[in-house]
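Q: Hi! First time doing this. I have a protein sequence and I read that you can turn it into a structure. Is that right? Here it is:
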Amino acid sequence: MEKLKKRIVQDGSIIDNRLLKVDNFLNQQIDTALIMHMGREFAARFADVQADRILTIESSGIAVAMATSAAMGNIPFVFARKKKSILMEDDVYTADIYSYTKEETYTASVNKAYIPAGEKILIMDDFLASGAAALGLASIVETAGSVVAGVGIVIEKTFQPGRAALEEKGYRVESLARIAAFVNNKPVLVE
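A: Yes, that's right. Below is the predicted 3D structure, encoded as structure tokens:
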């Protein structure tokens, strides 16, 4: 997706040739026009799967999941919480997920009522590096008795093992922008 790639190069910053910071348009400050465009792109890429629901993780996946939901006819979307709220019931699906950027493991939780059995669920996330987040969400989907319809990723780091880990499990992965490497704190995009 050319608009996204342009924003990554123009507005993203690389930290220690390791981390891509895009909080000025994707993670903290949201470029709504770009997010809505991403939603339409994901809807087009996954039009053949006829997903029933979208699942993401708070907070960076929420905006793109909402935009994709709207573009797919307002199918329901739900997000996994990284920390359990006192308002959250005990009847939840959980998965332990290691966060590459925070360098810690957290337990993602989703109320069981929001992930019914027998559905085709599309997983969405902002980044794909190790695949831990998407694999954790996939385990929640499968524990619930539903199937993973696909995995939509905004930015994929192709030099990390995430895609291989997901494809090894049989999951279809669609990424809007793919980064082959960071060189001198600049992204090298896959064309």
